[in-house]
Write a structure and sequence with these properties.
two-stranded antiparallel sheet; about 140 residues; three-stranded antiparallel sheet; 2 domains; alpha+beta; globular; single chain; Arc Repressor Mutant, subunit A
Length: about 140
Amino acid sequence: MYHLQAWKLVNTHRPFLEELRYGPQTAIAKKTKKVISTPKTGVAVLQVLASLAPRHTEVLQLLVSIQQVNKNNVTPYADLKKVCMQKMTTTSEANLRNILKELSDHDIIQSKKDGDGIECFYVHSKLPINDIVDFKRAT
């Protein structure tokens, strides 16, 4: 029997110490491999949007529309929150934070602090901004 460990195949019939020569593959190591990913492509982003809740898509579309108006292409969190509350896309700050975290986990949006330390969000320019704005959930 063989197990794939790190970059080598490990024979399970070898002595225990020899099998673990390169260290055991822990749960943390497995998660680390999953976390290292490449930036999403346009098709992948649209597939993710199709699988997420409609509110996620609405928040993303609002972020993109604000981003297009801003000259520096970043949106302060307070501005996004204000627009989301006005449009009734989200009803609480916690809800908005959860949506932003989910979109960030999928590498669709990114955050950074501006020169004043204000948290800002943006959609990377390599993503298909127009496709995101025009995205409609299949019915």
